[in-house]
Structure formats: structure tokens, C-alpha cells
Write a structure and sequence with these properties.
- The protein has 243 residues and is of the alpha/beta class.
- Helices cover 29% and strands 19% of the residues.
- The protein has seven helices and ten strands.
- The strands form two sheets. Strands 1-2-10-9-6-3-4 form a seven-stranded mixed sheet, covered by helices on one side.
- The protein is globular, with a radius of gyration of 17 Å.
- The two termini are 15 Å apart.
- Bound molecules: 6-phosphogluconic acid.
């Protein structure tokens, strides 16, 4: 593993060691939650984090204090939670069905409101209840990086630098186009962010979003990197070859 001096970029020779290290880091972070404190974790969707979720389900069932975890999502596709494209369903199948997180501690973004604006407002109320109406500060948010520089479901032009809302509906350029997403100020306020970025197809965009002058409106992931001071990028040799 090589640490880059530019920021906390952890480069691994293979995905197995990357995911093992990320899982260990999550275990240490969750298990140091003291007393009755809760650990607020927001998951990413897409393909990349699935191997990490499966590893947690396979090897970390008994050595993480799962009962402290309160589970949320960074974004969701606006489909049924049983739809094969749902981020909740992906997490349920790879992780939640295999670890002892009480269902009352699992907070999926509800996607059955006719108007996604109402769904966004409902999720904000869920967050307000958990964070006691204080500005949400997740212990950890796991994020992926899209080839166009999006993260969660913050796509180019869907980001407002004056955003005051915690959750918004957004439109993706790919199906399912209707999404819900945490906003940039919420992502930027997390105690820890893990970006998991692997594969040669992410090399160009990873270099772009890490550039100091990266435009946040064009590349929303750059907004998180510029504003959140505790970002760890878990990446492999292919995705980091241009750094
Ligand atoms: C989603 C994700 C999205 C994802 C990126 C990267 O709902 O699809 O939240 O932001 O993290 O698109 O996706 P991959 O990991 O599949 O490359």
C-alpha cells in the first residue's frame, strides 16, 4: 500500500487487499464508538462497493459492534426497493441479510411517493430525527465515483453551491434517471468519507476530480474532496495510474 502525500490516497495492488484494509478501517472506526453512542453510516450504491459489503458480511459478522450502527444511504435510484437496480436491495443482498443490524436501525430512502420531492423531504425528516435536527454529521459515508465525476447521485449541473436542503431529487443521465441523493453540504460535513475507486476506466476522472481547480458544478465529487477534510480514497493501481 502506498500513501500519497497529496491527500489520503491508499493505493493497493489488488482488490482483495484494498477491501480487506477498508473493512479493517471500518471495524476500527465503528468499534471505537463508546458507550451508548451510535455510529451513523451511509452506504454507496453501484458496483464497486459490493465486494467490500460482501467481505464485511463474510468475515466481520462477529467482530464489529453492528448494534451501534445506524444505517442510511447516500443516494437511491427512484425504483421499488425490491427492484434489481435499487441500492437498498443491493446492500440488503450483499450485507444486511448477513449481519445483525436491527431492522429499526436501517433507514432506506423511501421511493414510493408519487412525487420524489416528497420522498426527499421524508428522508430529511428521518435524518432530522436521528441528528436531532442538527446539521447531519455522519460518522462515515462511503462513496463511489462515476466516470463523469458524479458521486452519490449528484450529477453535473444538479449541484448548487448555495444548497440548503439535506436531501434532493436529482436526474441521472443514465437509467434509472430519477434519483434521490444527499446533498454536497451533507457529504462535506461527514466525519469520514471513504471514496472507493477502482479500475482503469476511473483513472482519468480520478485525476480530474483531484485537481485543485476541479470545477465542482461539472464534477460534484470534486466538491466533496475540496470541502471535506477527512477523505480517504481507496484505490488500485489501475485507477491511480495517472496520479
Ligand atoms: C449509484 C451510486 C453511484 C456510484 C457511481 C460509481 O447509485 O449508482 O451511488 O454514485 O457510486 O456511479 O458506480 P460504480 O461503483 O458502479 O462504478
Amino acid at each position: 500500500m502506498i500513501r500519497s502525500m497529496k491527500s489520503d490516497i491508499r493505493i493497493f495492488s489488488d482488490l482483495a487487499s484494498l477491501n480487506e484494509s477498508a473493512a479493517q478501517s471500518m471495524k476500527e472506526s465503528i468499534n471505537k464508538t463508546d458507550g451508548s453512542a451510535q455510529y451513523s453510516l451511509a452506504l454507496a450504491g453501484g458496483n464497486t462497493p459490493q465486494a467490500l459489503y460482501r467481505l464485511l458480511a463474510d468475515k466481520y459478522v462477529h467482530n464489529i459492534t453492528w448494534d451501534k450502527v445506524r444505517l442510511f444511504w447516500g443516494d437511491e435510484r427512484y425504483v421499488s426497493l425490491e427492484d434489481s437496480r435499487s441500492n437498498f436491495r443491493m446492500a440488503r443482498e450483499t450485507l444486511l441479510d448477513h449481519v445483525p443490524i436491527p431492522s429499526k436501525h436501517i433507514h432506506p430512502m423511501q421511493t414510493d411517493y408519487p412525487d420524489p420531492n416528497d420522498a426527499a423531504r421524508a428522508y430529511e425528516l428521518t435524518l432530522r430525527s436521528h441528528f436531532h435536527s442538527k446539521w447531519p454529521r455522519f460518522n462515515l459515508i462511503i462513496l463511489g465515483l462515476g466516470g463523469d465525476g458524479h458521486t452519490a447521485s449528484l450529477f453535473s449541473k444538479s449541484v448548487s453551491l448555495e444548497e440548503k436542503r439535506w436531501v434532493i431529487p436529482s436526474r441521472a443521465p443514465i437509467e434509472p434517471t430519477q434519483r434521490l441523493t444527499l446533498t454536497l453540504p451533507v457529504l462535506s460535513n461527514a466525519e469520514q468519507i471513504f471514496f472507493i475507486v477502482t479500475g482503469a476506466d476511473k483513472a482519468k476522472i480520478l485525476k480530474k476530480v483531484l485537481a485543485r481547480d476541479a470545477d465542482v458544478i461539472s464534477y460534484p465529487a470534486a466538491g466533496v474532496l475540496q470541502k471535506n477534510t477527512s477523505v480517504t480514497i481507496w484505490t488500485d493501481k489501475d485507477a491511480s495510474k495517472l496520479l
